[in-house]
Amino acid sequence: MLRRLKASSDAYPSPHETPEDTQTTSEQGGNDGPMSSLQKYRSQTMKDYGLMIEYKHLRQHVPSGIYVLPSFDHSRIWYGAIFIHAGLYRNGVFKFTIFLPESYNGPGTYPRIVFNTNVFHPYVYEDTKELDLKPKFPEWDPELHYMVAVLTYLKGIFYMKDFPELATVANGTALDMFRHDPENYVNKVEECVDESLTSVYTNEQGSTIRFTKHNPAHDNLRQELFAQLDATPVSFDIWLAGVLELTSSD
Known about the structure:
The protein is α+β, with helices and mostly antiparallel strands. The protein folds into 3 domains: about 1-60; about 60-200, Roll (Ubiquitin Conjugating Enzyme), CATH 3.10.110.10; about 210-250, no CATH class. It is about 30% helix and about 15% strand. The protein contains 5 helices and 6 strands; from the N terminus they run H-E-E-E-E-H-H-H-H-E-E. The chain has helices at about 35-60, 145-155, 170-180, 180-200, 215-230, and strands spanning about 65-70, 75-85, 95-100, 110-115, 235-240, 245-250. A 4-stranded antiparallel β-sheet has the order 1-2-3-4. Strands 5-6 form a two-stranded antiparallel ribbon. A hairpin with a 2-residue loop joins strand 5 and strand 6. Helix 3 crosses helix 4. The longest helix is centred in the N-terminal third of the chain and has 29 residues, at about 35-60. The two termini are about 15 Å apart. Residues about 5-30 and about 230-250 have low confidence and may be disordered. InterPro entries: UBC, UBQ-conjugating_enzyme/RWD. It holds the Pfam family UQ_con.
């Protein structure tokens, strides 16, 4: 089971501590100001290291049909895509970006997932395209919740056949239409699927997941790569900058 890293002494504050918890006497009027900065640096370093471990775990357990790669420029921005093979959203290819705040790995600090194109769904905000995580994770507990669980939830929303009673949802119009006007709901979903396919070759600037149209020249390269990695456990494969990259488990 994946567990968060914890600091082993007061010199390495736990990632679960709040900024107030890590204040030194300097911040409260004492004389050891440099230690306060050092503690904060170490605390953030622990969070960053924990994030690397979590991504390694994710590579080994990512839900099928989902592909995720970190940004080249920022370790706390990940790019992803999900391929839907059944249900109302079948054939859709929905790209998304994951934003992990600096305080992620701390209690109450949610990751954010924003789709590139419209996803008409009760759990997706229509104006921002952001996935609402609170129906599944009412409170974020870093001891229990990880990105693999978030991505499992993300996949699950595309296959939902009913919705529980909630006080509020991200897109109330979509929920009302789902319950009272299913024909128009299906039409709106199909529009989203069509939009996702129309824009599949539109690559976000800086994205590490990039789609290009099929080139026969890639076929031989693909066969060679698969031949070389035939005996290697493969976590996932993805077209990256026009060439199939295979990421294997360590």
